[in-house]
Write a structure and sequence with these properties.
Blueprint: E1 2-12, E2 20-25, E3 47-50, H1 51-60, E4 69-73, H2 81-93, E5 98-102, H3 112-123, E6 127-131, H4 137-144, H5 149-160, E7 165-171, H6 179-190, E8 195-202, H7 208-214, H8 228-250
Parallel strand pairs: 2-4, 4-5, 5-6, 6-7, 7-8
Antiparallel strand pairs: 1-2, 1-3
Helix pairs in contact: 1-2, 2-3, 6-8
This protein binds iron/sulfur cluster (SF4).
Length: 252
C-alpha cells in the first residue's frame, strides 16, 4: 500500500512531545480560512510512498527521536486511514511514539465500517492532537466549510477510549476571539478527562504566499495577525473556564 505524502519534516518540535519526524499527508476536506497549508488540500497529489519507505527515513535520524517519535499531520491524515493504520502499526512494532494531528472532520459514528477502522487505528496511536477551530457550529462552518458536531463527538469518542489528547485552538482576531465562544470552548475542553495539553496559538499570515502561488484568493485578506496580547487574553478566558469546569467535574 502507498500513501499520498505532501512532505516530511525531519526535526519537528511543535507537533507533539520531543523531537519528531512530521509527515504531512496530502488531501483535506476542510477549507479553513486561516489554513497555511493550502497546497495539502488536493487529493491524489504529492509523492506516493510506502510505510517502509517512511520508516527508513525515520531510521536515518532515529537517535534524535528518543524522546519524540512520529507525528502525522496534513492535510487531514485520517482521509487515508488504511495507509495511516499500516504506517502506525509498523511504527508501534518498532516502539515508536505515534501522534496524529487531526481536525476530526472525518469522524462518522453512523458508519460501522468507519468506526471499525478508527478503533483499529487507535490501537496504534499514542496521542491525538485535535484542532478545535470554533465551538459554535455555524461559525465553524463559516470558518472551515463544515459544522463541528462530529468533531465534538470525536473528542467525546477519544475520551471514552481514554486516548490522550492535546487540544489546539487558533485565535483569529474578530473570528475566534469572542468571550462567549472561548468560555464554552474552555468548558468543553476542561470536561475532557483525557486532556494532556492545550495549545492556544495566534493566527499568522505566513501561508499567504502559498495562496498566491496556487492562484487561490486569500480569504482573510483584511484580518490582522493575532497580537501576543490578544492570544494571552484568549488563553486566560479559556483556562479560567477550563479550570472551573475541572474543579466542578473532577474536584481538581
Ligand atoms: S484542516 Fe488543516 S489542512 Fe485542512 S484546511 Fe484546515 S488547517 Fe488546512
Amino acid at each position: 500500500m502507498t500513501g499520498y505524502i505532501h512532505s516530511v519534516e525531519s526535526f519537528g518540535t511543535v507537533d507533539g512531545p520531543g523531537i519528531r519526524m512530521v509527515i504531512f499527508f496530502q488531501g483535506c476536506p476542510m477549507r479553513c480560512k486561516y489554513c497555511h497549508n493550502p497546497d495539502t488540500w488536493a487529493y491524489g497529489k504529492g509523492t506516493q510512498m510506502t510505510a517502509d519507505e517512511l520508516l527508513e527515513q525515520y531510521d536515518k535520524n532515529k537517535e534524535f527521536y528518543s524522546n519524540g517519535g512520529i507525528t502525522v499531520t496534513g492535510g487531514e491524515p485520517l482521509v487515508q486511514i488504511d495507509f495511516l493504520t499500516e504506517l502506525l502499526e509498523k511504527a508501534k512494532k518498532r516502539d515508536i511514539h505515534t501522534c496524529i494531528d487531526t481536525s476530526g472532520v472525518t469522524f462518522n459514528p453512523d458508519s460501522v465500517q468507519g468506526m471499525e477502522k478508527l478503533d483499529r487505528l487507535m490501537e496504534f496511536t499514542d496521542l491525538i492532537m485535535l484542532d478545535l477551530k470554533h465551538f459554535d457550529s455555524g461559525e465553524h462552518k463559516e470558518l472551515t466549510g463544515h459544522g463541528n458536531e462530529n468533531i465534538l463527538a470525536f473528542a467525546s469518542y477519544l475520551e471514552k477510549k481514554r486516548k490522550p489528547v492535546w487540544i489546539r485552538h487558533v485565535v483569529v482576531p474578530g473570528i475566534t476571539d469572542n468571550i462567549s465562544h472561548l468560555e464554552k470552548l474552555g468548558g468543553f475542553i476542561g470536561g475532557l478527562s483525557n486532556l494532556k495539553a492545550l495549545d492556544v496559538l495566534g493566527y499568522h499570515t505566513l501561508g499567504v504566499n502559498k495562496y498566491k502561488e496556487l492562484g487561490i484568493p486569500y480569504p482573510l485578506e483584511n484580518v490582522p495577525q493575532a497580537s501576543a496580547d490578544e492570544v494571552m487574553k484568549a488563553k486566560k478566558v479559556i483556562y479560567d473556564s477550563l479550570i472551573k469546569t475541572r474543579k466542578e467535574k473532577f474536584g481538581k
